[in-house]
């Protein structure tokens, strides 16, 4: 009913193409995050779904209704702006009830629904306060409530948490998820923060330079990135990528990493993938999916820098094109300048074609 | 002792407190400007108040500082209340305000709404629209004087529309002369209204307009619930400016009709001008002027207070 289907969506501004041929199906009741760096086209996509911008090409369907030419006021979508766009000359109550009042609903119902949403978002104490004197954290909830009160089947959120403080962000992540569970809307959530995308979304659509890179469940995108952009963009820190060439060793197929020596032998799946490769490859593994190994095993690197976040530590090794990182959840006996040998877990290694950047599959 | 204590201490003990010093310096620096203001604003006002309480006139042969010789203890203000010509002029001025200001406001607002979004030729249209405002009022007066002649272009245009010759004597008919004068004012000063209101419209946050649209508000609902409340102070100022300006309407009108025919277009300014130059009773003129100043000040104060309200 309220699935969103984007078909061959293109948006051009003059000679600049903000979005090239986007095809995406967002299921009814799904929480989809559009994730990518600034300027990747995620907000453009969102604005076109909302009807604030017209696509240069392609179609937008809600269920099987073509909405491409429908003006924004008649699409019935909820939209939360990055800067909230609260009506500052009104009270919180007037903000929350705005849509209901414009639709000329009976006063009793308007009142009931306004109070209900205010209760749900813990805004009751602020109902009669003017919006321009309230803190960002409260305005954020007003912005969400103002759209949620309309009970839209489709709820669009444009980086709604980027202006609120870190502690509150964690609270809002949980509340948004709860909101969606309660009302079962189709939610599209634009963000550049992978933590938000990973924790809330059913699926993530990763975008870069106006191109949809990968769509999948958070764990899929994390485990099986389709290219080196997704591999480095997802994860904190991103995947380690080291250039090398296929090499046959007596312990099996491996990657010759040049100055870093020969990689540990590959697992069967990756060995199979490597056989399909021609020329240079990129050897990738996640910093948190590796362990320290005795000399002679693993990939060597001298420690250049160590970030400690509580028990977790991010160790930076090597320099320039051979730099990589390793994340340890427990204390490791390493000091600056030490040479460490890092052994990626065999299942965690991913190989990419060095010329196209695409993942190699067996 | 912390560093900031050390830095503060000598200042407290050896020199006067910085605030006092700043105030004294500020007074000295603004003194020339204050004297200037005293001479341009306060002195004439006091002089006017003084003369308004006398029967002094230039033909008495006495220099104005000795006007107390003609002291009449407020008789001018009593006369003013029963001056039929003055009240007629006031009523006429009020009528022009009541018609011209709403028309200029609605036209200006409508035009401003058209100019919020881009359209081809917007800059040119904008320049043409604000041009009347830049015409010297005396020139505009002559222009409309010519246009409204009975053999003039306006009759020509109307005649060609209805298909027969017209010879309406616009400026010598009591009602039509007033209409002509008001049309001239609307032509010349709608652009100012347009300009001020456009500035206000552009200041309405686009995000809030989009948010309202997404919540299903129709264009009219958006205008009433978002645009108007935000523009209230600007509207108050625009209206106050035009009310005050029309209250003083003179140059264009005087050239077009001279206040006539008879006294059909005699506004308050025209009346004061006549009394000043023909009757030469300057003490009385001063009293009228002061009374009007008070009325206008009340209007201005009202507008300023509205501005303050919406900021609160």
TrEMBL record, chain A:
GO cellular component terms, semicolon-separated: ATP-binding cassette (ABC) transporter complex, substrate-binding subunit-containing
InterPro entries: AAA+_ATPase, ABC_transporter-like_ATP-bd, ABC_transpr_MalK/UgpC-like, Mo/tungstate-bd_C_term_dom, NA-bd_OB-fold, P-loop_NTPase
The ABC transporter domain, residue ranges: 4-234
Keywords of the record: ATP-binding, Nucleotide-binding, Transport
A molecular function GO annotation: ABC-type transporter activity
Matches recorded under Pfam families: ABC_tran (PF00005)
Stated family: Belongs to the ABC transporter superfamily.
Designated name of the protein: Carbohydrate ABC transporter ATP-binding protein, CUT1 family
Organism this protein belongs to: Rubellimicrobium thermophilum DSM 16684
Automatic annotation (TrEMBL), chain B:
Gene Ontology CC annotation, any one: plasma membrane
Gene3D superfamilies referenced in this protein's UniProt entry, alphabetically: MetI-like
Keywords tagged on the record: Cell membrane, Membrane, Transmembrane, Transmembrane helix, Transport
Residues that span the membrane, as ranges: 29-51, 95-116, 128-148, 194-217, 284-304
Xref: PANTHER family: BLR7065 PROTEIN, INTEGRAL MEMBRANE SUGAR TRANSPORT PROTEIN
Family indicated by similarity: Belongs to the binding-protein-dependent transport system permease family.
Name of the protein described by the UniProt record: Carbohydrate ABC transporter membrane protein 1, CUT1 family
């Amino acid at each position: 009913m309220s699935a969103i289907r984007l078909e061959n969506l293109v948006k051009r501004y003059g000679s600049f193409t903000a979005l090239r041929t986007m095809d995406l199906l967002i299921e009814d009741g799904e929480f989809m995050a559009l994730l990518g760096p600034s300027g990747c086209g995620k907000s453009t996509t969102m604005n076109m779904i909302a009807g604030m911008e017209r696509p240069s090409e392609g179609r937008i369907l809600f269920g099987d209704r073509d909405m491409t030419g429908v003006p924004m006021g008649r699409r019935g979508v909820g939209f939360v702006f990055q800067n909230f766009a609260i009506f500052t000359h009104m009270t919180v109550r007037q903000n929350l009830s705005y849509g209901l009042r414009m639709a000329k609903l009976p006063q009793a119902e308007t009142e009931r629904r306004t109070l209900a949403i205010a209760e749900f978002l813990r805004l009751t104490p602020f109902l009669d306060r003017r919006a321009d004197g309230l803190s960002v954290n409260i305005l954020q909830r007003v912005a969400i409530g103002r759209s949620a009160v309309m009970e839209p089947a489709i709820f669009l959120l444009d980086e709604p948490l980027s202006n609120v403080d870190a502690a509150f962000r964690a609270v809002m992540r949980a509340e948004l998820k709860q909101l969606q569970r309660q009302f079962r809307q189709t939610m599209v959530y634009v963000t550049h923060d992978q933590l938000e995308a990973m924790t809330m979304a059913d699926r993530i659509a990763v975008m870069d330079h106006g191109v949809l890179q990968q769509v999948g469940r958070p764990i899929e995108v994390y485990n099986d990135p389709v290219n080196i952009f997704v591999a480095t963009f997802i994860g904190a820190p991103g995947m380690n990528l080291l250039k090398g060439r296929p090499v046959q060793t007596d312990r099996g197929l491996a990657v010759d990493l040049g100055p870093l020596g020969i990689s540990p032998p590959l697992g069967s799946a990756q060995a199979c993938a490597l056989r399909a490769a021609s020329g240079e490859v990129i050897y990738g593994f996640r910093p948190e999916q590796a362990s320290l190994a005795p000399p002679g095993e693993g990939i060597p690197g001298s420690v250049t820098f160590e970030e400690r976040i509580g028990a977790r530590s991010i160790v930076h090794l090597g320099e320039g094109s051979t730099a990589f990182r390793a994340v340890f959840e427990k204390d490791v006996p390493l000091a600056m300048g030490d040479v460490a040998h890092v052994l990626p877990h065999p299942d965690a290694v991913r190989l990419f074609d060095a010329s196209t950047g695409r993942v190699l599959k067996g | 002792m912390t560093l900031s204590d050390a830095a503060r201490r000598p200042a407290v003990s050896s020199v006067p407190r910085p605030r006092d010093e700043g105030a004294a310096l500020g007074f000295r620096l603004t003194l020339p400007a204050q004297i200037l203001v005293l001479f341009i604003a306060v002195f004439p006002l006091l002089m006017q108040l003084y003369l308004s309480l006398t029967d002094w006139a230039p033909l008495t042969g006495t220099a104005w500082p000795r006007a107390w010789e003609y002291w009449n203890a407020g008789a001018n203000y009593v006369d003013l209340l029963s001056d039929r010509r003055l009240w007629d002029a006031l009523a006429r001025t009020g009528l022009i305000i009541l018609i011209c200001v709403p028309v200029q406001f609605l036209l200006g607002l409508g035009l401003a709404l058209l100019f919020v979004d881009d359209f081809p030729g917007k800059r040119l249209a904008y320049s043409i629209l604000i041009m009347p405002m830049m015409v010297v009022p005396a020139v505009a007066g002559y222009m409309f004087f010519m246009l409204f002649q009975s053999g003039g272009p306006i009759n020509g245009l109307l005649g060609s529309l209805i298909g027969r010759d017209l010879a309406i004597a616009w400026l010598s008919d009591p009602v039509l002369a007033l209409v002509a004068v008001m049309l001239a004012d609307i032509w010349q000063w709608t652009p100012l209204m347009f300009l001020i209101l456009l500035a206000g419209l552009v200041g309405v946050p686009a995000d809030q307009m989009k948010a309202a649209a997404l919540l299903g508000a129709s264009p009219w609902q958006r205008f009433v619930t978002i645009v108007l409340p935000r523009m209230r102070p600007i509207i108050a100022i625009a209206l106050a400016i035009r009310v005050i300006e029309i209250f003083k309407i003179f140059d264009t009108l005087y050239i077009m009709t001279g206040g006539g025919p008879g006294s059909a277009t005699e506004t308050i300014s025209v009346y004061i001008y006549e009394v000043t130059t023909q009757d030469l009773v300057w003490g009385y003129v001063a009293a009228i002027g002061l009374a009007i100043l008070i009325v206008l000040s009340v209007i201005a104060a009202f507008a300023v207070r509205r501005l303050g309200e919406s900021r609160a």
